[in-house]
Amino acid sequence: MSNVQSLHTRWLRDPAYREAYAELAPGFRLARALIEARVNAGLTQAQMAERMQTTQSVVARLESGRAHPSTRTLEKFAEAAGTQLKISFEPMEGTA
Question: Within a domain: residue 42?
């Protein structure tokens, strides 16, 4: 187990950490999906930006997990990566 994973596992025992982590999780999942789409397309951030007609720093912000992109921006990202955007609503964990 890496040092980061070990710390994360230990910190998860703290309720405040668990709450903050859960709150940030959707942004991290989106960031992971964006990075995966770009990498699978074999593109650098600069190449993705060129295809989206934007800057590399915009792509970096999208992939950071801190941005809250519009649906249109996500569509442009998907198109630039040669994929299609698919949005779904899933039951929340721990609910029936």
Answer: yes
